[in-house]
Every structure is written in structure tokens, then in C-alpha cells.
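Deviations from the work plan: none for this task. Representative record:
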Amino acid sequence: MTNSKVVNQNNTQEGKDRKVLLRVDNLVKYFPIKAGVFKRTVAWVKAVDAVSFDVYEGETVGLVGESGCGKTTVGMTLLRLYEPTSGRIIVNGEDTTHYFLSARRAKNYVRDTYVKRFQKSDFKPQDDLDKKYYDIFKNSGENGLLEHMVGDLEKKRLQFRRNIQIVFQDPYSSLDPRMRVKNILAEGPLAHKIIKKPQSIETVGKALEEVGIHSGHMYRFPHEFSGGQRQRVGIARALLMNPKLIIADEAVAALDVSIRSQVINLMMDLQKEHNLTYLFISHDLSLIKYISSRVVVMYLGKLVETAPKEELFEAPLHPYTKSLMSAIPVPNPEFKKQRIILQGDVPSPVNPPSGCPFHPRCPVAQPICSKEVPELKEVKSDHTVACHFPGSL
Amino acid sequence: MEKNPLLSVRNLRTYFYTEDGVVKAVDGVDFDVYEGETLGIVGESGSGKSVTSLAILRLLDPKGKIEEGSEIIFNGKNLLTLTEDEMRRIRGNDIAMIFQEPMVALNPVFTIGDQIMEAILLHQDVDKKKAREMAIDMLRKVGIPEPEKRIDEYPHELSGGMRQRAMIAMALSCRPKLLIADEPTTALDVTIQAQILELMKELQREYGMAIILITHDVGVIAENADRVVVMYGGKVMETSDVRTTFKTPKHPYTWGLLNSIPRLDIEQERLYSIPGMVPDPLHFPVGCRFSNRCEFGEEKCSVEMPPLVEVESAHMVRCFFYHKVEQAQKLSKAGEGA
């Protein structure tokens, strides 16, 4: 819990003028490894381990890391395609963590997370959310809070799904090959009753034009489109739900270089027009630098550094961030950069190294690094880093 | 300066005869590779860069034919006139290749030791014991820890980076004069990519071999190649030494490509986009292959294929209107300075 406290305090000060759209608080996702006849759990893959960050309305947060660092799992868990092991996911000032549990378990979650703490005599609210829920609790008791948080769960779920949409990496497997594009696009809005059937052709046509595809193509099947066009269809599908937040998971990684910039520019234009917020998940630091306003760097399931973009690229403090930057090939033969070649591979998240997860590969590791997990500390305003010796590389 | 090239590709044309028509994957490609240098071939999917490399080793699948009039001269011999037997002696021995996906390129049912020793036993006059020693030595050279143990492991037991190292060990076990690396790091993470590219540079210095580095990543080319060939639609669009092409690109495609990628070294307001999409190799546009996506083009471009001309010493460009790109480049440079 200590990690998140540090981060949250910072953000409540910072966030006075900016609205936090999404707060990820100490998110943990472990996957069981099962073996034997009885499928006993023999170990856990610690895919995401205590990750906390905020996403403000209208900004783009870049979530960057290498394969296996848990960045995709963060995205999937936020969308509740995976249930988090623990931690809270707060959207628009409401705790949404329990939305996809059964009513009984959702109630238990609310009791465990809030009611039990509120009932203690020495309770002090830790953040705005605590204050808000405590007020409800004081005024209308446990049942009132349960009604507020668990009542009409089905409606809350639909609302949640409308608010957060995703664009996947692979435009080949994320569109149903047996459905026409029109039906792919109309399916969501119809199910959520955003539009009525007779309107669907008009709405879909408009959405297609908006992403740069001729509306006459709506009767085509996905295979009739090129990769870039398919990714545009994927973006249109997300847009049609009028979401507040779009999670883009490696949305341009599968595209050819010359097509990539078309899609990136399109996404940035749409952001301005619709006041969208993006969580952009990518392994490509150059892309993250171009598109994001703030950057979150992950390594082996842990958050290692987060900072505004300019700050991060000018003065990275974590040795991993710095090494990652130096490993990116720059298309300029005259560009001089510090070359840091990391030794070894990324360790397995089943058995992460003791202490700092980066210490076996870290060029400046000290004895303490293998013993103690570095806490996420705010080193400068809005710049947090999890390292015992920040800035030493 | 007049050196004899190690490999000369002249008018290479490789067509695939499919049911839908003739795919002109590589259509008249010329380039030279000199001893000890790294030639980068850069292009997007469908540009013909991989087919070119497979054609050099004559490893095309049966539908693909190298057309009459193509020449691939290696060490003074035209590889296209050799018998299959003679060719087999060159593959793996004089010219070796590493591929993008080591898991696919390595045989999953043999240990990596078996696979490295196979190449050694085939091309060198040594017994099995000696071959094993050489294989262990090679694995140590490419930075695989505990090579005595790792030699008996199967490909699936190694990580992606280690597999690529094992492939490099296999390719270099016979000290080839030319190594063809087709997207050797595309499947790897950036920190592992940096390791592998560094390793290739070190081994190149030690063995003095030439490398053809094929990739879609212009950054990798800029940092690792001496000279660059830019391919698009089965044609060479521009070629020169690396500095010249990256500093003063003269082909609209090269220029567009360099301006459309997010970069760490400069601040970018908005990325340039090359309009349209990568052409279908069955239906290339008439005239210049890039004409339907080019912002500098004129009528002439969609009628006539521009020739590859030398615009400066050793800087060849296939464009009628390359001076327009020069101006655009000057403008954007001035904008950067302001």
C-alpha cells in the first residue's frame, strides 16, 4: 500500500486543475500455473505487481516496456477482460473494481475495502474517493453505500463498457472474418442501444468516413481491406461507442512503416475532435515520445518510472529507462548517443529476482539492490522512479 | 577506390508465376557488396528485399523463377550458372544466412549442437569430436553462457535472443565471406536487438566478412550499415553510402519514409504520411512504381519508368524529379533550424 500512497498524494495536489479520468491503484494480476492431474496451482506468474498511475482527461499516457513486462496485462485488466487479483480501478471518480463480479462478491468487496475501514473509530479518509464514500456511509449507512456502489450493477457494467474501449494490435485477428464491416461496427452501438437499427447504416457510414474509409465499403468483409484499413475499422468500432478512454494496445505495431504514420496521425486528429483520452501501450519508445504527454515505464510487472514526456526523455532517472532509450536505433548516422548494452535476457515473471527486478541486468547495481525492493518515490514534481540510486547511470 | 566487389547483382529479376498472374517481386535489381562492408537493404513488405536475398542463395520456392539475363556474380562466378551440387557447396560455406524467426528457422527435433555440427561436418574435413569442439567454441563466441551444456539443448529451451545467437553461431561456423541477415532482430526486444547487432559487428570485425542486412527499420540501417539500398515495388529506388541517403535523401519515397517515423533525435510537430497504401505486387502502377503515392510526381511518372541515375558520385536515384525532393529537404531543414 505504501507505494500507492506516495503517488496518490502527489496526484491529488497536481490534479486540482486536471480531472483524473482513470486511476490505477496498486493493481496486481497473478496468473496461476497449474500442473498435475488435479490441476493444482504450483506457481504464479506475477504479470502485474502493484502498478499505480493516473490518466488525466484528454491526455495520452504512454505505457512502455519490453515483451513480458505486463503492459498488455495492465490494459486487459483495466478493461476487465481479466479480473484483477487485487488493487483498485477508479474511473471518473467511482471505484469500478467490483463491477464484473457477482452481486454477492461485489458486496463483499465493498465491505472489505471500504465499510470495514469506515467502521473503525480512528478512520481518516486517505483520498478524495474515501471522503466521497465516507460521506455516503455517514449519511445513509452501510446499505446506502452498498446501494450506491453495487445497485444496478448491470447498468454500471454497460456504462463502463461504453466509457472504455480498446484497439487491438493485430487487425487481422481482431475483426470477425465472417461479418461484414457494417455489422462489426453496428454490433456494439445496437447492443448498448446508442442507436436504433434503422439509423445504423447512416451511423456506420459516418464513422467510416471519419477514419478515412469510403462509406460504400461497409458491406465488405475484413479480408477485403489492407492492414492499415482494418486498423482504421478497429478504431471506428471503438469510436462508435462514444468512449472517454481508448486503450490502444500496440495499435500500429503490425503495420508497414509508411502506413503507421497515417494511423498515428488519424488517432491524434480524432483525439482533438472527440476530446478522447488514450492509454497507448507500446514497446516503441520513439512512438511513445511522439504521441504521449506522460509516460509510464514498466519492467517485469513493476512500474519503474513515470514522468511527463519532456522530463522523461531529457532526464531519465531509472537505469532501465536510460538503457531502453539508448537501445532504440535512431535513423540518423550522425546522431551521437550513449550506448548502453544491457547484458542477459529479461528474467521470468514466475521467479522474479529478489529486490529490484532490474538488478541482474543493471549496470550500476549495488548490493542493496538485490535485497530491497526500491519504493516508487517522487523525485521531482510529477516524476516518480523506483530505484535506490536514481540518475546514477 | 576501384575494388572488385565480392558480390555483384545485375539486373536480377525474380517472377512468381501464380494462378492470379505473374508477380514481379524483384524486377531489375542491381547492387554490389564489397569485402568487409555492411550493405543495408531497406524496404516495406512486398518491396522484394527478402526475395532478393533468397534469390542470391537460389532458395526460392518452385513457383519463383529467376529470369533470363539476371546475373549474381560471387567471387567471379555467376551463381545462376552453377549446378545444384556446386551451389550446395557455396551455401553455408561461402554465403550463410540468418532469418527473422529463429524458432521457425531452427529444426525443433535436433539439438542446436547437432545443427551447428551438421554445417561444419558438411563443409570441413573434420571428425565429429573436433566438430563438437568447434561448435562449442562458436557458441562461446556468440555469447551463449555455459556452451558445453547449452550445446545439447533443443531450440525451444532457449530464449528468443539466445536462439538468434545460436543461429548466428551456425551461420558463422564455416567462416563465410558473406552473411545475409534477413530481419535478424525484428522479432526481438530492443535491448536484445542491441545485443545481437553489437555481436554481429564484433564478429564482422573479427572475421572480416561482408554482411547484407535486410530490414524495414531505417534506424537499424542508419546505425549498422555502411551503404544502403532502398527498395520499393521490386525496384531499387535509391542507393548510396548511409550518411548521404539519410542526410540528403533524393527519392520521394526515401524522403517520405524518413519523415514519417517518430524519432528520438528530433522534435516533431506532426509526422509526414505517405498517402495511399503499399501496392499489390500483382498490380504495380504503370511507370514509376511509386507514382500513385508520390507528392512530387508529374504526368510523366505514370507513363514512363524513371532510370536509376547517378546524381552525385556513388549516389544513385530512380526519380525524374529528385531536385524537388532536394528543395523540400532544404525547406524542412530550415524549418528545424528556426
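Chain A has twelve helices and twelve strands.
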